[in-house]
């Protein structure tokens, strides 16, 4: 199989949405458990970092520390929701529950199953952002009404992270090795993507690396421009980066999964 | 009667390994068609190709006259599948499992609810409607999977080892349900390595081994053709073998036993007892298992 075959666009029908609906049904069934993390996470970070560490940091580029990290907390939550949905959660459905096997015995194809899973991951990002945003609004650390634009953007960014997660799921030998991308990719991103301090204080080479390779860098840039009402044309560069990388990785994820599951 | 499945020189390779080796068969509408074979014979692989989830390597395979590579979704709308592995959705209850599954077939919720009611009656699970999957016994899970496979009122039902691991009661209930489906005119294709299951249910069977079809026909015809009507078994001892040789009998050695295939079991038994002084003699009708062991050999298939 040449590498070009991994870039073959998936053939999809409306049936794709039925996979999304299945996951939504499970989510609604266990709503109370799902609701808490995105509600508590920003509270804890805002209190400890924003108002604890913030006593010493006071201002970054003329912005108070809680206002500086608020959009980063949104971006991190978007990343976690999408990434973990299509890594651990999808892996459990695929390998332990055999849910994918059961679905492809119906008119749905594996391409539709994987796409439905990724769309659901993106939806989880949107849900997380929707629960977090009111908390940040209550603390008065995001601008209004512009910050609501974060919500549709959360779906796009979630789609990117869900596609990345699905690529790892397609390649991982077992569920334990999924810890590797978590520690080697997600955790560094969490710390070095301009989240809790500006990228500009890092060495030049690392700045380039963060801009070229780390998706969260672009997501934080965009959420920060939005919540601080400081949108510049640079938003188009980050947006383009996200759209292109998301499109490529989505197609790649579907084809890698096909290779794994269709024998 | 039309042909529901047509396979010609159907082949499936995994790298160098040939799982299904250029087999040809056809399944007629309304019949129960069984695939018998030891583990690794290629039965499940053949089922998976018919279900359009595993692409064939070469040859022709049509279901309802449609090519499996070209029309997978169209074919899958018309078939129901009972997989070997229990893959019910543990996130849902009994009824929710069927509801979610019905959506994959574009069945409107109201129609689905009606169908689910009668299907749960059919597999005797009406009382378990709201039970979660983990609380079901093995037999209940298999019955629910059967109900799930019928949700789209399929014209063709494919069952891969439908009763494996079940107790006799649960097995007989499944057989009973399958007979009911056959009498309604459903076409059924199943794999099994229970001879009794094949003999009880199937109109025609194929016996597969190492990716090839060894025989195809009606169970009783295959018994007649390969082992005759009856079998007399005695201990595999040198005296007995020598004595059988003197009598000019046709026999086969099977482990600790020696078997005589015959149409006169009484006479053979009497002669054996008189002439050969064996410790034990058993006369019994020949069955599918004898055909199976004769064709696929007695060594372990691992």
Can you describe this structure?
The complex is a heterodimer of chains A (263) and B (302). By secondary structure, chain A is mainly alpha-helical. Chain A has one domain. Chain A is built from ten helices and two strands. In chain A, strands 1-2 form a two-stranded antiparallel sheet. The longest helix of chain A is centred in the N-terminal third of the chain and has 32 residues, at 65-96. Chain B is of the alpha/beta class. Chain B has eleven helices and 14 strands. In chain B, helix 3 (94-104) packs across helix 4 and helix 8 crosses helix 11. The interface between A and B is medium-sized, with 22 and 27 residues.
Features:
heterodimer, A: 263 residues, mainly alpha, two-stranded antiparallel sheet, 10 helices, 74% helix, B: 302 residues, alpha/beta, Rossmann fold, Alpha-Beta Plaits, 2 domains, 6-stranded mixed β-sheet, 4-stranded antiparallel β-sheet, 11 helices, 28% strand, elongated
